[in-house]
Structures are given as structure tokens and as C-alpha cells.
């Protein structure tokens, strides 16, 4: 459960940051499906990512520790190329001052948005230091520098999609101390799978109460109830049997039969009863605050055009006036609506929205 909680927390925080990166790069960005692994440092291997680019982020307020993001150099080429509007496909990527600055700017936007989401989630102010980027050409050298001891670490693997240009993965690595601090607000301290306490709640035999329905063996006072079965009065003239009137149940007690209601087998699979741990985890997820963003339109500008912005500059968007606006939750579009004014504030009247199951799949 602790591992699931870590995955959900980072999925929400980094998923939110995808919106910021998307606006910066001018391409749709998706960061999804984290896979969390707890392992010893000696078992951590990133050879399939080499040559890689590492980004070190230190928490200076609210949390104690550091995150290290590991991205493939080929993916970083695309990211820097989009930001600087330069094609690196046919040239060697060099970690010069300009490229390092571009990487740090993207990561600063990404982790800044993530820290804001974490602040709302954990209900405390969280700040990070400026990111520091570096090349990783050898896994062992990287581990000796950042994880010199053979300790437990938490590696979270994310899928990264940038338009049609990138469909890859990156890794978020942290010490278990930081991971424990992230989930400490929910009373989950251990990083070991906590499956032991769950069985008792699940093993509680819910069906046991059913035998209570056996009080059919109660006194004959229950016998009058079978009155609805008029067939037990065959002594009556044939005419009484054909109409089968309900008002004649009084003759049934004479037969002394016990009549029970028909019981039909259930064809629907039984609903799984959540254990106490699962209920707590679900409650935690449902209480997570998510950022809602309303988008009236988009446009793309070159950096030199943005630098020419001044007071009074008009930026034309790609959507005609009066069009419906898009409503995003955690960076995912879930609804459309019309702009309204509520007590001097802008608002949105929802006119189209996905159903709950579709929304949960997106989030």
C-alpha cells in the first residue's frame, strides 16, 4: 500500500507539471503510469538509458532530501530543440552553457509545478533549489557519487510522451527517507509491502450473518404467513381453485405446512468488500486536491517574439470569440463550458463533460 501511495502522489504532482512543460515546449506533453520499485543501490541499473542526463533537485523547505531525474540524452535533445527551436537530430548534443540552461529551465518549470502540487497535497509549503543538470555516462560512477552506500532507494519509472516526437521513459530516484516523509501524512511509515494486516479484514466471513435467516424453525405463529399459497386448500370446491383468490389463506394453516419464499441463485459476481487498508487508501486518493485549469485558447510564439512583449501587447489566440472553453483537471481535458461571471469573478458553466469512469481513467 505504501508503494501504491508513493506512485499516486508522484503521479499527481508530476502529472500536473506536464501542463507547464507543454506550454513551454508548444507540444502536448503526457507524464503517466508510474511504476514504483524499492531496491538496493547495487541492483539499480540505468545502462539502457546511457548516455543519459541527470537532473538533481534539492528540497529547501517543506521536505528534506533530493530527487534525481534521469532522462535519455535522445529525449533531452528533443526537449532542448523544441525550446531553442533548433534541430539536434543531425548533430552531437553537447552539454554547453546554452543547453544546460535550457534543460534547467524546463526542469525548473516542471519541478516547480510539481512542488506546488505537493504543497496542496501535503498541506504545507514546499520549495526547491534551482535544478542542476549533468551527464551520466557510467552507472557505477553515478551511484558512487549520489548513493555511495548499498542502501534502499526508491525508483519511480514514468512514461513520457511529447507530441509525436517522444514516447519514452524517465526515472525519478530518491532515498527511502524522502519517500517515507511523503507518505507520513497518511500514517504509512514502512516501505515494505504491508499486505499482512489486510487478510484479517478480508477474512472476516461476511456471509456468516446469513444463517440468521434460519429462524424459520420458529413457532407455528409463522405458519399463517404462507397464506398466499391457496393450492393447499384442495378440499374446497373446484371453483375455488381456478380463481386462486388471495383472500382465502386462512385455510392453509390447517395443512400445517411451512412455506418459505423462493431463493434464486445470484448470477452477478459478488462485490468485493474492501479491507480497512484499502478503504483508507481509497479515502486518501479521493481527498487529493487537483488543479483545475480553464483554457480559452492557445498560440505559439518564438522566444524572440516573447522577449518583445510589453504592456499593451495583444496576443491573438487560436479560438474565435464566443467559443466554448476547455476545462482541464490535472492537465487532462474533461469538460467544455461557457465563461460566466460569478460575484465579480470569472467562472465556467459546464455544458459537456466525460462520465466518471472516463475521468478516472484520465486521472
Query: What are the segments in which pLDDT stays under 50 over at least 5 consecutive residues?
Result: 192-254
> Strand-and-helix sequence, N→C?
HEEEHHEEHEEHHHHEHEEEH
Number of helical stretches of at least 4 residues = 10
Q: Tell me about the largest β-sheet.
A: 7 strands, antiparallel
CATH architecture of the largest domain: 3-Layer(aba) Sandwich
Rg computed from alpha carbons, rounded to a whole number of angstroms: 32 Å
Which key features would you list for this structure?
about 375 residues, alpha+beta, Chemotaxis protein chec, Surface presentation of antigens (SPOA), 2 domains, seven-stranded antiparallel beta sheet, four-stranded antiparallel beta sheet, about 30% helix
